[in-house]
Amino acid sequence: MKKLFRVLILPIAAVLLAGCAGTERESSSSGSQSSSGSSSSASSAKVTSQGSSEQSTVSVPIQVIPELPTEDIPEDVYGKHDLSYGNFIYNPNVTDTSNEARYYGDFRWEDDPKALWISTIEEVPWAEYDADAAVEYGLAHWDDGEGICAPFVSRCITEGNITEYTESSTSITLQLLHSRLGFGQFVPYNKSDHTVTLPSYARPGDVVQIYCSYEGVMIHSLLMVGTDEQGRLRAVCHNMRNSGQYAFVVDDLNDPCYDCESETFEMFFYHFYRDDDEGLPEAVVKNKNIMLWEQQGYFISETYSRERALEYARQNPDDGLGYYGAEHTSAILQAGGLSVGYPNQSALFLQLLKTHLGTAYSQKVRADRTVILPSQAKAGDIGFVYCPYDGTIISSFIISGSDSTGRMITLSYDLLNDGESAFKVDSQCIGCGDDIKEVIIYCFDDV
To answer: What residues make up the domain containing 255?
Structure first.
């Protein structure tokens, strides 16, 4: 009942409270300044080391996220998301000069290829994609007025023999990555004319989406139907309707993001493997278990402290379920030094993937509902429970270690876990009832 309450009640409460967000934010901000003299503060935690015969105590600063200023923010943004969350460094329209060094660090363009998500689960794709049928349906129905972008692309995929897809752009992304029918990649769009040039191996029938880096969500879905004479993407889609006859242009509706006013600059595309594929990334050719790949991309110039993140989690024990759990994991990551966070599990996962600070690994849930940690994992890394049917991340947690048999232990306190023994995963998704068969472990690279 505890889980069900948090999953069902907390999102409702968030919606009910959204209408008074501006008033609450203004009053709480003034109140915190009068009591502490500053809009941001830091507290210290005592960490005791028992690695030797003598105990030593170290003071670890725990950062407290300041209230973001509300001036110059459109009123209609309230109720759509909490502006105190997100990839702060990706949103130039929201600034906090009192703590700029921490929350708005540099991010740079990185040309080094990187695998962002790898599966350790050997599985054969459960379907064969008919790209021609998907494209034929898309060209015939791009203007039929039935649903918006994601439902339309979902129907196109269904016509291509892929039947279990939701009507959320972000969920479609996660489902495609999980399908093992190809791999995903992020590509910057052309800022000069807002068109998109995909890699040479992109083919009609591939799925393309606009990504909002601040919120960590896909905000628009398209189906590739070809390229123009300059190699720019031609696609069909609903809303921002496009017939696929000309190069697709990211218009003012989605740049900046219509939801949060952040600048958008990247597209996600999923390439379905073809028999005639040429020019695929060498790493993908060598390892078909790579689910998400990036040839080049934006890199967050931050470092993550596993120790500080773990100490915050020890001081603030809670479970990792649903909306509330995403908030808790966000606070853990921010205590560890990262400018990411969002009260949505799937968005938080995508944000973490995009930091380039590590790699995610899909791990199989064993018959006893436990998970063996991959060799790369260490205490302080982050785990996610994934429901492939819904295409959603349903919980998250921080890893505190493993037991004598290598089974994962987490600082997650729900009905099945005490934070001290092997973490046990629910047998079924509490939302849709589908079997839970995998957990995703995000392993930070050693700095």
So the answer is: 113-295
